[in-house]
Design a protein that fits this description.
GO terms for molecular function: acetyl-CoA C-acetyltransferase activity. The chain is mainly alpha-helical. Helix content is 38%, strand content 0%. The chain has one domain.
Length: 42
């Protein structure tokens, strides 16, 4: 079995309750982070 390791990290923006990210769904924020990590790692 092939080992899987995390070689890059990213995070979502930090906002305040009811702020500019209030209307962005959690899965969309997560997908944005995943895309960024994959882009950075090649």
């Amino acid at each position: 079995m092939t080992d899987v390791v995390i070689v890059s990290a990213a995070r979502t923006a930090v906002g305040k309750f009811g702020g500019s990210l209030a209307k962005v769904a959690a899965p969309e924020l997560g997908a944005t982070v995943i895309r960024a990590v994959l882009e950075r790692s090649g």
